Backbone:
């Protein structure tokens, strides 16, 4: 099956939410400036995403084979134990808004532009998930991303990108030699059906992370993923 490409993602910036996120007071000196930036970004921005429904062809204690590519991760293998189909994806704020943001030189404007690009990326992830749910009815899903936890190396981006075909040609996301993506405001990973919600953050001890989506559970790895804990 070919990858599905979402290159016309509708998005609208929630101005009160953006200003709250940036600590900008309504009617204050920065409010008009951020409103202007947001309007321009909204006109220019084209958030995009692509994904594929991929079958798990074989599996082991520390790996799964999806569409002919082997992914090595103990946590991924355990999370996919009862799963037969996954949804590898790449989502991005888009090259258009990335180019727009590169013109800013002041620290403050760059900070605001990054927040706006984050909203564009959020819109593409939301559209992607809605599309997967509408088309494939996977039930409750969770997401894992190469490089987000120790157990799944960033280098596995190469296999993920190769499953999808040509994300650079399709949605403008380049996989660099370092395995980071360009535009940097992009996310790659796999959605998978699960009865037990999983967040990478549950296994990540990083303190004071502004993006944390779940508390760190320092006993979770030993309890659920360590081989000798599973009998
Ligand atoms: S806590 Fe932060 S760094 Fe760690 S996985 Fe979550 S978002 Fe990523």
Residues:
């Amino acid at each position: 099956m070919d990858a599905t490409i979402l290159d016309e993602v509708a998005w609208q910036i929630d101005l009160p939410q953006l200003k709250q996120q940036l600590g900008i007071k309504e009617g204050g000196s920065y409010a008009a400036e951020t409103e202007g930036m947001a309007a321009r970004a909204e006109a220019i921005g084209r958030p995009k995403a692509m994904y594929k429904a991929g079958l798990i062809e074989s599996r082991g204690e520390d790996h799964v084979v999806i569409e002919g590519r082997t992914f090595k991760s103990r946590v991924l293998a355990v999370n996919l134990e009862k799963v037969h189909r996954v949804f590898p994806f790449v989502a991005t704020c888009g090259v258009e808004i990335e180019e727009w943001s590169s013109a800013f030189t002041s620290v403050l404007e760059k900070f605001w532009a990054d927040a706006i690009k984050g909203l564009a990326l959020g819109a593409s992830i939301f559209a992607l998930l809605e599309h997967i749910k509408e088309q494939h009815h996977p039930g409750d899903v969770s997401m894992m991303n190469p490089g987000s936890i120790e157990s799944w190396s960033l280098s596995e981006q190469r296999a993920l990108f190769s499953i999808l075909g040509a994300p650079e040609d399709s949605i403008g996301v380049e996989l660099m030699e370092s395995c980071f993506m360009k535009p940097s405001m992009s996310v790659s990973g796999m959605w998978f059906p699960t009865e037990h919600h999983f967040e990478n953050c549950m296994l990540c001890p990083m303190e004071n992370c502004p993006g944390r989506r779940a508390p760190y559970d320092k006993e979770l790895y030993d309890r659920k993923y360590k081989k000798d804990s599973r009998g």
